[in-house]
Design brief:
Chain C: Residues 99-332 form the ABC transmembrane type-1 domain. The complex is a heterotrimer. Chain A is mainly alpha-helical. Helix content of chain A is 76%, strand content 0%. Chain A has one domain (29-59, 99-307): Orthogonal Bundle (MetI-like fold). Chain B is mainly alpha-helical. Chain B has one domain (6-108). Chain B is elongated, with a radius of gyration of 17 Å. Classes of the chains: A mainly alpha, B mainly alpha, C mainly alpha.
Chain lengths: 313, 112, 341
């Protein structure tokens, strides 16, 4: 037995966390400056989101109700950025700084939900497709391929039309979940097939292990890396698409401090009359956040085992 | 060749017919109205039928580019024109079966 | 060469594609919670009025009869009249006026994307892992990360509000009344200028087009340059290149020149597939710049539940998308001799 296989075996026995540390993935990733930049951006946004949401509970940040209701009489309307209102105020005299910070919470929350649900669905479909090959595989994967061929924003628009308006942002989340699931299914199937090709799975199957056990114990853990990469890349896209749907009027209900909606109002009501701050700041935070996820995702993909890299587009 | 295609479409169609008719009964129990149930089943069938039809023709249309691109990028995802066409033919025929099955069952139950 | 038979076979495939899309639209609209009869009758209508509209629309017929009638209407190009957005106007008339607007925008955007994206991608690949490569890659990543509905307003702020160089919205200054020939405003105003109407309208049309086209163009450029880079590097990595590469950096560049044609092939496919994304981008761009194309039309129609208009617009989108990919497929078959026809 060569040294290499010995090390691999030892690593296998130490569990996932230890394996991650032993793998070149993490060190590769951390030596990539762009990816580290992405991590810093994401951590900063998470901190902002937590401050806005939980700060409201203990009174160091404005609560959602204050951010939603008009502040005419309390604040000046359409005031440019100042010390009191760093991002200015909107037509209803609401503090844009507070609204944009709370928007970070909404973006993180709904982005997480979208990615989490589509990852779960995608993992299920992808693993089933990889394991029960032939007709099941073919029908699942070719359906995913056709769905992937649809332009994502237009597909999301079509799906949004099916769900009732009362759902608010959840309507957009549901539509986007369906749009994103195929991407995960594809990655997971590709990764799972590579794992299944490995001999030890054959050995386990030969020993008579039941299907679900093989899937959960052996296939899934080995697919975690590509799944994580795909989730990271799609997190940015999810935030972007959610904001786009809000921008077009199919997302958050009026008054909600979501980035897309503030931007939409800022562009439609404030851009041509000179209130640039109204649309500038929500867009800035949105773009930075998405860039953070894209930088990290790209770096993770480069650090991935080349055999798995193919599966992630 | 022709026979195998016929078998593929036929079996999916048969399954669709049964699901369409059976599903209608369930839908009536769930929705309480033959009319609503009939519309729901038919429309769900149409969803699969339209999807299959679009996917089937799209597969042929995009075959060259997709296959060659995979070859170029050396990243085969198992897509071939043939297996895509077959999958879509199954889905489409199934959907059509559901449409016909639910319609026939509606008439049989006197729902028109 | 592309044979006539090959071409006809592809063209014929448009029929099942559109049949499939039409069926999908039928299904989706019937699954959506809105009631067209209520939409038409208006919010204050009584139950009897709504019932009368239902009968008139044939919504009481069995669903398969409705489906058959729907397909028949589409085949005979009877797409109905708009319910709300432009009440009573035939959908076909609305689409005919709005389609060129979006088409023009997408065309210029795509052109900019190709013109800048391909050279940038090649540059990035040739100078792999140098500072030029890193800058180009980060630039492309930023281009994808920045949403159109933010970069658009930024450009408006810079060029229209602060510098006052370019107009912020619309397609042409309202002072000009250019006769409609093609519906493509830059072309129409050029024809108008050449037939003695003066170049003022043409200038105005071009200056209105610059910002929205740039917004779409940057996005498409980012996608294309990324694809071009990886495709070029892939070509270099291939076996027959490996030998040449061993001869040194100079040889690598020579090889890349030869590899260029091979590398463009997958990029062309991506351009076709990304055309749909571009149409999605056009929806957002039109909203930002107040341009009335089919993108804003679709959004309005979905918002108010103008079903015939939604149907018509989606069909047009699907038709365009398929047509572009058909064109891509033909270009592709022309470039890649291995494809049998």
């Amino acid at each position: 037995m060569s040294t290499e296989t010995k090390t691999k075996q030892a690593a296998d026995e130490r569990g996932f966390l230890a394996r991650l540390q032993a793998s070149p993935f993490l060190s590769d990733l951390l030596s990539n400056r762009l990816a580290v930049g992405g991590i810093v951006i994401i951590l900063a946004m998470v901190a902002i989101a937590i401050y806005a949401r939980f700060g409201a509970l203990i009174g160091i940040a404005p609560d959602l109700q204050t951010l939603k209701t008009t502040q005419l009489g309390t604040n000046p309307s359409l005031a440019p950025p100042s010390a009191a209102h760093p991002f200015g105020t909107d037509i209803q005299a609401r503090d844009i700084f507070g609204r944009v910070l709370y928007g970070a919470w909404l973006a993180m929350k709904f982005g997480t939900v979208t990615v989490a649900i589509s990852t779960t669905l995608g993992v299920g479909l992808g693993i089933v497709a990889a394991y029960y090959s032939d007709i099941t595989d073919n029908i699942i994967m070719r359906t995913m391929d056709v769905l992937l061929a649809f332009p994502s924003l237009l597909l999301a628009l079509a799906l949004v039309a099916i769900f009732p308006d009362e759902l608010g942002l959840w309507r957009a989340v549901t539509a986007l979940t369906l749009v994103y699931t195929p991407r995960f299914a594809r990655v997971v199937r590709g990764a799972a097939l590579k794992v299944l090709e490995d001999e030890y799975i054959d050995a386990t199957v030969a020993l008579g292990a039941k299907d679900p056990r093989v899937l959960v114990r052996h296939v899934l853990p080995n697919c975690l890396a590509p799944i994580t990469v795909q989730s990271t890349l799609n997190f940015g896209l999810a935030i972007l698409d959610l904001a786009a749907l809000s921008f077009l009027g199919f997302g958050a209900e009026a008054g909600t401090p979501s980035w897309g909606l503030i931007l939409s109002n800022g562009v439609k009501q404030g851009l041509l009359t000179g209130e640039w701050w109204w649309s500038f700041f929500p867009g800035l935070l949105l773009a930075i956040t998405v860039l953070g996820f894209n930088l990290l995702g790209d770096g993770m993909r480069d650090a991935l085992d080349p055999r798995m890299r193919d599966a992630v587009e | 060749m022709f026979e195998s295609r016929l078998r593929l479409v036929g079996s999916a169609l048969a399954v669709g017919l049964v699901v369409g008719a059976g599903g209608l009964v369930f839908a009536i129990l769930a929705l309480g109205s033959v009319r609503d149930a009939s519309e729901t089943m038919f429309v769900l069938g149409a969803l699969a039928f339209g999807f299959g039809l679009l996917g089937w023709s799209g597969s042929i249309l995009a075959a060259n580019s997709v296959e060659a691109m995979q070859e170029h990028l050396d990243a085969a995802s198992g897509w071939t024109e043939q297996n895509s066409r077959r999958a879509m033919a199954r889905i489409g025929s199934f959907g059509f079966g559901v449409m016909v099955g639910s319609a026939v069952a509606t008439v049989a139950l006197g729902g028109v | 060469m592309v044979s006539k038979r090959f071409f006809l076979k592809r063209l014929l495939l448009l029929v099942p594609v559109l049949f499939g899309v039409a069926t999908l639209v039928f299904a989706i609209l019937h699954l959506s919670p809105g009631d067209p009869a209520k939409v038409i009758a208006g919010q204050r209508a009584t139950a009897e009025q709504v019932a009368a509209v239902r009968t008139e629309l044939g919504l009481n017929d069995p669903i398969w009869v409705q489906y058959g009638r729907y397909l028949f209407d589409i085949v005979t190009l009877n797409l109905g009249d708009s319910y709300i957005v432009r009440k009573g106007v035939p959908v076909l008339t609305i689409l005919r006026a709005r389609l060129p607007v979006t088409l023009e925008l997408a065309l210029y955007g795509q052109l900019l994307g190709i013109l800048f994206g391909i050279p940038l991608g090649v540059l990035s690949a040739v100078k792999q892992d140098t500072i030029t490569d890193h800058l180009t890659r980060v630039g492309a990543l930023t281009g994808i990360s920045v949403p159109i509905y933010w970069s658009g307003p930024l450009l408006i702020l810079l060029f229209a509000q602060f510098l006052g160089l370019l107009p912020a919205s619309g397609r042409i200054a309202s002072a000009y009344d250019v006769p409609v020939y093609t519906g493509l405003i830059t072309l129409d105003s050029l024809v108008y200028a050449l037939s003695g109407g003066g170049f003022g309208a043409f200038q105005s049309a071009i200056s209105h087009m610059l910002l929205p086209a740039a917004v779409i163009g940057v996005y498409s450029m980012a996608l294309i340059s990324r694809m071009m880079r990886s495709s070029m590097l892939e070509v270099v990595r291939q076996d027959y290149m490996r030998t040449a590469r061993a001869k040194g950096q100079g040889a690598k560049i020579t090889i890349m020149k030869h590899g260029f044609r091979n590398a463009t092939i997958p990029v062309i496919t991506v351009i076709g597939i990304q055309f749909g994304t571009l149409l999605g981008g056009a929806v957002l761009t039109e909203t930002v710049f107040g341009i009335g194309g089919i993108g804003t039309l679709l959004v309005n129609a979905i918002e108010v539940g103008d079903y015939p208009l939604v149907q018509g617009t989606v069909l047009v989108f699907a038709f365009l998308f398929t047509l572009v990919n058909l064109g891509v497929d033909l270009t592709y078959s022309y470039l890649d001799p291995r494809i049998e026809q």
